[in-house]
Amino acid sequence: MGGKRIFTTAKRREFSKIMCSIAFVLLALLGGWMIWKYYALMKLAIETESSVTPDASLPIAGITAIITPIISYLMYQARLKNSRNKYGISENGVPYTMPDQDGGE
Fold first, then answer.
1. Would you tell me how many other CB atoms lie within 10 Å of the CB of residue 54?
2. What is the pTM of this model?
3. Contacts of 84 (CB under 8 A, 6+ apart)
């Protein structure tokens, strides 16, 4: 039997991806609840013919809570890519092979 490895190592997930996924799920649930609560309160106000309606900032805050982790993750990844390009490091942390400064190979 040759020296071939049958099993491959699993790709490690970045800590930032895990944290952003957790934040997205939690804030998406919170945002969805806020939007649902606004419509439930509006329905109640219409059914009771109340002159007081729920504040319209509730669904806006819900949408903001859903979008915020997405935008922050995209900004983080853009900055990380810029940093990797600046220092010549691949995604796995391995430096790119750079040609010699004197032009030789």
1. 17
2. 0.59
3. 90, 91
Q: By C-alpha distance, which of 75, 85, 82, 93 is closest to 14?
A: 93
Q: Which region holds residue 48: left if phi is over 0, alpha if psi is between -120 and 50, else beta? A: alpha
CA distance 59 to 3: 60
Name the residue type at position 26. L
> What six digits make up the tokens of 6?
């049958």
Residue with tokens 């900055």: 79
Instruction: Describe the crossing of helices 15-47 and 57-87 by its angle, rounded to 10 degrees.
Output: 170
Render pLDDT for 53-92 as a digit per residue (tens, 0 to 9): 888 888 888 888 888 888 888 888 787 776 666 666 666 6
How far from 40 is each of 29, 32, 35, 48, 70, CA to CA, in Å? 16, 12, 9, 12, 27
Separation CA 79–CA 1 (nearest Å): 47
